[in-house]
Amino acid sequence: MSIRIACLMFSHETVTFLANDTTKADFIYPGSPASGAALLSTDPAGYMGGFVKVAREHQGVELIGIESPLFPITGTGSGWVTTDAFEHFTGRMVEQLRMQGPFDGVYLCVHGAMAVRGVPHPEAELARRVRDAVGPQACLAGTFDPHGNEDDKFLSHADFAFCVKYFPHYDSRLQGERAARMMIRAIRGDYAPSAVTVNVPILTPTVMQWTGASPWMDLVQRALVWEAREPDLYVNVFFGFPWADVPDAGMTIQATANANPALARKAADDMAAYAWRRRAELASAAQVQSMAEGVRHAAEAMAAGRTPIVLADHSDRSGAATFLLQEVLDQGLSDTAIATIADSGTIAAYRNARPGTPFEGSIGGRLDPSAGAAVMLRGTIAAGDWSDNNPARHWMSIRFGDNNLVVLTPYLTQIMEPEALARFGIDTAAYKAFAIKSRVHFRRGFDDSGFAPTILLVEPDAPFLGTIRLEALPYANLNLKDYYPYSQG
Ligand SMILES: [Zn+2]
Question: How far is the CA of 24 from the centre of ligand 1 (A)?
């Protein structure tokens, strides 16, 4: 029996508090949208790669890549996805599904924290439209990021949802592989999914959610134990994404069993009860300092030789925030590489500047209040690259102070590994501190690897966006009092 599976992707992690909307144009750049073989070969080490690999290990499976936008050029540094963008890309997908069908299955490579103006549950709405296009017999499977804000609506239209367990997201490929295997089993009549979803009213800043330590590690471990001891049971733990102001924000548990609703119910309820019992620890798992404290502690660690040091500004969501640079200047911290500050204007103004060219100007900030003010800097151009046809890949760096360096990029750039600094010509051995814009993903290369003995998480006093003080954010689509730790009593 031959099996035809359509693969599509529509993925964004939307920070709705940012002023700049994510538009149709942000999804269109060299390589995106992608279709056919190009779509199937995107992200070989991630969700799509895992799905394609396992699907192709099965006899008689044909994969069709449906035209899909890749992650927007703005990365995670942009706000509400416009209705126009959502309608345009889902419209194209549905049209092609109808033209190229029939299909036995559809793989939806989504994120879960996309927020679209006027579309309250975008991933569920995408699944609804796909279902409408391919009919009730087809098997629909989605893969999700644990930052997804999900409830039971996606699974009311789709058969499977598989969510990454770890933050950093080490197992995206494994979840893609799993989605392919389970979809093919279901199509062949070997698995009949019965799913249970339980929303857990806990809302936590993402900086808390590192799964490399207790209690988040324990939550992941409990899900893994359920999956290990019960054949054919799959457990999702969505941590939730509080920077998307959407009605279904927050933690969600899903369990899926093979024609066994009672087992799915038992596992989901157990996981939800466990998370609730440990809510106080989950909501306070990370120590976050002010910029001033963090830079002071970095100087102390430097003096004591506890280097390299990571200063992680977890709060910057636009990429342009200058608070940490300003504090480095104010306290005269030395030997620090700052990567990066988003400032496309300065990069364009210094196009093809040679190393050693004097630099005097104000950088960063301005984009929105959470980016802070532009910072006046005097130094020299260290390096830069303006050769790519795509200006999104241009960058430059400025040397200043006592062996300090700041890298400018056009958009928010999250440095997750020391190796990523090599792209900007940075020799990590030449610096003692690395000031980066990351919450948890940097632990992949700076902490889990043993690279940095000193890790300092910082955020500005005000104004802020990616703050641990969620009560300071202007939520309009959810009531913070409905969630721990903001609920009364
Ligand atoms: Zn994530």
Answer: 22
Q: Phi first, then psi: give them for residue 193, nearest 5 degrees.
A: -65, 130
Distance 440 CA to ligand 1 centre (A): 9
| Cα–Cα distances in angstroms (integers) from residue 453 to residues 298, 307, 432, 459, in the given order | 11, 6, 11, 20
- CA–centroid distance, 208 to ligand 1, in Å, is 13
Cα 90 to ligand 1 centroid, rounded to whole Å: 22
Determine the Cα–Cα distance for residues 416 and 188; give it in Å rounded to an integer: 40
By DSSP bridging, strand 193-200 and strand 234-238 are unpaired
C-alpha span between 134 and 143 (Å, rounded): 19
**Ligand 1 center to 212 CA (angstroms):** 14
| pLDDT for residue 466 | 84
Predicted local distance difference test score (pLDDT) of residue 238: 98
Question: What pLDDT does residue 77 have?
Answer: 86
Question: Measured in angstroms, how far is the CA atom of residue 239 from the centroid of ligand 1?
Answer: 9
Spatial separation of the C-alpha atoms in residues 141 and 107, rounded to whole Å: 5
Query: 90 to each of 95, 365, 461, how far by Cα in Å?
Result: 8, 34, 40
Average pLDDT over residues 39-55: 97
Whether the pLDDT of residue 198 is over 60: the answer is yes
Centroid of ligand 1 to alpha carbon of 406 (angstroms)? 26
Mean pLDDT over 320-343 rounds to 97
Distance in angstroms between the alpha carbons of the first and the last residue of the chain: 58
